[in-house]
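4.2 Preliminary Data

To establish feasibility before requesting continued support, the project team ran the inverse folding procedure on a target of 123 residues. The structure was first converted into the token representation described in Section 3, and no sequence information of any kind was made available to the design step. The complete token record follows.
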């Protein structure tokens, strides 16, 4: 996405700590039993809130059967209401910047350790 749409750029900090807080799982979808790797949305939301839409355990009320009105618009029978789940979703692409920053932090650690080993070997 274009830099001209952004302001107040800041380098990501503590990416490794955030990645360590993620809880990846393997699970089966209830709809068809297929197994995939992923996250529970409400757990991911604690670490990367921008990657998750919706709220945990959200529901909404909806009209199952509409109200019956007479010719003048008076209610003869009330609408029958029901409640349904409103599911959370995950935008996996929002996880990528954190993963890249964590890899970069790891590489700095690896490079530092290599340098220390080389220094010890040269003594």
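Position-by-position output of the design step:
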């Amino acid at each position: 996405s274009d830099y001209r749409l952004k302001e107040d750029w800041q380098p990501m900090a503590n990416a490794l700590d955030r990645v360590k807080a993620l809880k990846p799982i393997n699970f089966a979808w209830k709809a068809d039993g297929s197994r995939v790797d992923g996250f529970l949305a409400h757990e991911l939301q604690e670490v990367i809130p921008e990657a998750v839409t919706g709220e945990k355990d959200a529901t909404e009320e909806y009209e199952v059967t509409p109200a019956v009105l007479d010719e003048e618009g008076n209610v003869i029978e009330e609408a029958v209401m029901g409640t349904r789940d409103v599911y959370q979703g995950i935008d996996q692409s929002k996880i990528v910047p954190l993963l890249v920053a964590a890899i970069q932090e790891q590489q700095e650690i690896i490079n530092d350790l290599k340098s220390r080993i080389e220094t010890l070997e040269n003594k």
